[in-house]
Amino acid sequence: MSRDAVAADGRTAWLIAAFTDHAANVHTLARRMVGDHQRAQDVVQATFIQGWQHCEQLRDASSTRSWLLRIAYRESLHALRDRREVPTAPEDLTDARAADDPAAEVVARDERDRVLALLLTLPESLRAAVLLRDVNDLPMAEVATVLGVSASAAKMRVHRGREALRCAWNEQEVNHGL
Q1: Tell me: the pLDDT tens digits for 27-57?
Q2: Reported pTM
Q3: Beta-carbon neighbour count of residue 41 at 10 Å?
Q4: Are 154 and 144 in contact (CB under 8 A)?
Q5: Is the CATH number 1.10.10.10 carried by domain 1-89?
Q6: Which one of 1.20.1530.20, 1.10.10.10, 3.20.20.20, 3.50.20.20 gives the CATH number of domain 100-178?
């Protein structure tokens, strides 16, 4: 087997393992950044193609998730810039806590939809920071790595994003009596 074939086999094995371990996190970030399922799938595909093409640049296997999420973040920004419009259709999620009470489930789904819709109105950098920290549950250092900023800048983006969400939520309640 040629050297190139061995390298391709190693990259293919890496891709399978990376996809198995991290596809859900990549899709979650992409879905919430771009706002619709089809565009998110395109972002996921582009992310793993980029990862496969450049996996030899990954210095530490333990940072694969951060590295892939950083690629997904950049691909999401490209998708949003290509689109030039704000996505408006938030994904319906299920809430296991509300499964026993249909009324609570409806309220929880409505609140999730409101939060997701408000998230989509945030600037991309704040949206990504909040999603990475609060949805993907990444440690702040990893959020900083994915965003390509310092830890203090990542903390500030998460704080500002949360504050913008809180203000938008309160404004919506006042204006619409929610």
Answers
A1: 999 998 888 889 999 999 999 999 988 888 8
A2: 0.60
A3: 14
A4: yes
A5: no
A6: 1.10.10.10
